[in-house]
Amino acid sequence: MRNNFLAGLIICAPIAITLWLTWSVVRWADSWVKPYIPARYDPEGYLNFAVPGSGLVIAMIFITIIGFLGKNLIGQTIVQFGESVVRRVPLVRSIYKSVKQIFETVLEERSNSFKKVGLIEYPSPGLWALVFIATDAKGEIASKFNAMGQDMVSVFLPPTPIPTAGFLIFVPREKIVMLDMSAEDGAKLLVSGGLVAPDFPAKPSKEPAVPGKPRLLARAKKADRFVAPE
Questions:
Q1: Which H or E run includes 151?
Q2: Can you tell me the distance from the alpha carbon of 226 to that of 48, in angstroms, rounded to the nearest whole number?
Q3: In this structure, are 82 and 171 located in the same domain?
Q4: Are residues 139 and 197 both part of a single domain?
Q5: Distance (Å, rounded) from C-alpha 157 to C-alpha 129?
Q6: Which of 108, 127, 145 marks a domain boundary?
Q7: Does 104 share its domain with 122?
Q8: Contact between 155 and 131 (Cβ < 8 Å)
Q9: 99 with 24, same domain?
Q10: Which residues form the signal peptide (predicted)?
Q11: What's 192's DSSP letter?
Q12: Alpha helix segments (H runs only) across the chain
């Protein structure tokens, strides 16, 4: 009975949690968008039943249209004029500038940021922690470290089992041991506390095999690092 219950829980829990999260997001989007939809454009005004997700769909269409219009000359002029007005408001301009910078950085780096997983020695030598690679150090931080001859990379170190919180750490590139697992597999490993490990090898490795040595040791040696033998 216990084994059957646990097997059923493994099958049902992911499905139930996924449906609950999806439904919660849809309802949250509808609660924000639907109050601003004119009655003549609301599908529920022509039907006798509620249409879940209509607000989310309308919001996505509206954002897409705004993005399309913002690419032409007239749209860019309007956006620039609106930003110039916002920049004159003391408190609002700071919030707007920060939020815009975050979105621009995330969207510009979306092809690489947080899609690679690695290991760093933390919190002390000989102890390894899983991190997500964010991007190369930029701005003043990169300038300071480049003057010292160090190539720094910003990584995100999340705790277990809540990967949304964590620490931003700048690590020398040669001290990061890169992994083949995807960001999704890394998140699963963190959330499960190490219980759900990704399949390995997921794909053939291009690195030569090292007989009698773990693959982590081979990578560490490739980066001129020393790992104590088991």
A1: none
A2: 69
A3: no
A4: yes
A5: 8
A6: 108
A7: no
A8: yes
A9: yes
A10: none
A11: T
A12: 2-33, 54-69, 73-86, 90-108, 139-147, 183-191, 215-222
Residues 100 and 70 in one domain: yes
For residues 52 and 27, the answer to whether their CB atoms sit within 8 Å is yes
* 168 half-sphere exposure, CB direction, 13 A CA radius: 7
| Residue listed under structure tokens 């939020």 | 99
**Which of 55, 84, 108 is a domain's end point?**
108
Q: 132-149 burial by CB neighbour count: b if 16+ within 10 A, else e?
A: bbbeebeeeebeeeeeee
Degrees, nearest 5: CA angle 223-129-125: 65
Over residues 27-50, the pLDDT tens digits come to 888 888 888 777 777 777 777 777
Residue type at 176?
A: I
Round to whole Å and give the CA distance between 214 and 198.
17
Range of the domain at 37: 2-108
| Residue range 206-226, pLDDT digits in tens | 444 434 434 444 444 444 444
How many structural domains are present in the chain?
2
**Residues in Cβ contact with 128 at an 8 Å cutoff, skipping those fewer than 6 apart:** 119, 120, 121, 122, 177
**What separation in angstroms does the CA of 11 have from each of 6, 14, 23?**
9, 7, 19
**Roughly what angle, to the nearest 10 degrees, separates helices 90-108 and 73-86?**
130
